[in-house]
Every structure is written in C-alpha cells, then in structure tokens.
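Could someone model iron/sulfur cluster with this protein?
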Amino acid sequence: MTDLREVMKSSYCPLVFHGLYVRRFTGEEQLIAPCCLAEKSEQFRGQQDLMSNQYLEDIRNDVRNNKRSDACNTCWVIEDQGGQSPRKIALGRFLAKDLPTTLELSEKQSNECYSIDYNVLPLCNAKCIICSWEYSSLWAAEAGIKIISGDELKYDHLSKTNLDNLKRVYFNGGEPLLTNEHLTVLKKIKYLSTVDISYNTNGSIYPSDETLDLWSQAKSVDIHFSIDGIGKRFEEIRTPLKWDKVSDVIKRVNLLDGINIACAYTIGKHNVFDLEETINWFADLPNFNVQKQVHVHTVYGPLRLELATSARKAEFKQELEKFSSKFYWHTNIVNSF
Ligand code: SF4
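Reply:
Sure, complex below.
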C-alpha cells in the first residue's frame, strides 16, 4: 500500500478513476468529467457506459504516467497556493471509507463508479445574478431561448452505467428538487443504504414525501442550501425567491432526523459584506456549527473577486480577516484574488 503522503504529493486522484460528473442538456445531449470541478468533455449524444468514455480514459492515462492532467487545473492551482484542494478532500474521504486510494489498486479495479456529481436538466425557478441561461430555464426564458420541451425528463442518461458500487451521489442543477429527475436516479441505485447523498438546492422547495422516503433509506443525506445573503439581499441576489419562504424551508429541513444541512455561500464582488450576517443567521439554528457547516467558494464569471479594483480588494481582504483563524475556506478565498 502506497504511503498516503506520497499519494498526496503525486498527481493521483480517486475521482479520476472512480468519479463521474454528468451534466444534462436538452434532449440526449450531455457532457462528462471526473468531478464537477474538472475540465468538461465536449457535448455528446446517446446512451453509453459513461465510465468507459475515452475522455475520462485520457485523464486516467495522464495520472498513470504521473502527470498532472490539464483537466484538473482547478486542484493544481489550489494546491500550489497551499490550499486544501478537492483532490485532497476526495483522498481523505476515500480513505475514511476504506475505498481504494492507490494507483495500483485503481489500475486493477479500473473504473468502477463510486461517486457521481449529477447536474439535472437546467430547469430552475430562480434567475440568480451568479447564474445564466445554461443552468436556469428562467434566465433562458428571459433571453427568449427555449431549452426544455418536456420529453427530456424521460431520457435515461445512466442506463448503461453500472451504479452497483456507488458510494456517493451529489445533485446540482438547475434546481434538483423542482422535478423528479433526482428521484429517477436514486431509484436506479440498488444499494441506497450504502450511499451518501447530497444536494445543492436554492431552498425554495420543501422535499416531497417520496423524496423523504428515499432519503431515509440512504446512508447519509447532506442538503447544501445556496444562500449568499439573507433578507432583502438574498432576494436581490436570487430573484424571484422570497427569503421568508426559503428561510422557513431551511429551518424545517434542519429539524428533520438524519439530515445534515449546510450553507453553500458563493462569494463574489457583490456579497463579501453579506457574509458575516449570513453566518450569524445560520449560527442561530439549532445544532448548527458554522465552522463546519458554512462552505464558501468563489463565483465564476464577471462577479469574480479578482476583477475588483485594488482598493476594493484591500477592503475585501480586511473584511475576510474576521473569519481567518476559524474557517477552513479562508486561505483558499483570500488567495484567489
Ligand atoms: S479536478 Fe481535482 S478533484 Fe476533480 S478529478 Fe481532478 S484532481 Fe480530482
């Protein structure tokens, strides 16, 4: 068994061999990657064993040759800045579950799918300022683009991919709780009791009885609420959602047995100064540990922190100092701009 410190230093990532990101578009179109942060494949059509796709195999070959794959640049940038990359987090997670963490094992076991990041169709009831028509049907409608006809929900992208060894599934969107697409995926999983499931949701929809029933069969359930500002600020950032309704859903889900909730805060030029108030709101929830359950990550696109003026960046850094010693994400965020 390879020494873990050596694995950490190498280019090995368990998700390259055992992870699958699927993003659905209209009709049969989709693209894939080893995880949601890695560079994505070209869009392609049709059903196939996604784990055997040549795009993923090319990334695996880079790792087999101990090369840092260009597809994983997000991780290399974070690691070179001294941060905790998703690769290292995945290694820790795989170790904790006694799954293969070494290149030798992975070569033998080839490409069994242990982890899926699944982006449902881009149907959403919000048009958040950090989002676009590619992920939200509300933005698409405003732009006059028709992206969904209705038949797409029937198409089964995973029909030829073996999910029997799955240990983790993460739903993103679109808004995953808006349709039954996530339930279709959960029902395909034979051994749900061995699977950790998680969601990124905008918090506008309380889970249905069927959803709660399937969640109760899973090994664990984590619900990450995309909240990056509260009250009126929330409503400006995530139009047309209403804070009263969303905050009520968060409070109710937080009280459900066996469900762990978290705040997923997407930080950009627009909301650095909303972070403290948001964290304080979550701190008032029963059994909520803000240091462990508030996750902050940077936005993509024109609101990126790095696009601020030098003077503004200095103000951002000063504001973020409030969180420095207590929050694991602080180094990654401050070093990103
Ligand atoms: S981007 Fe990072 S976490 Fe994702 S597959 Fe590549 S190395 Fe692993």
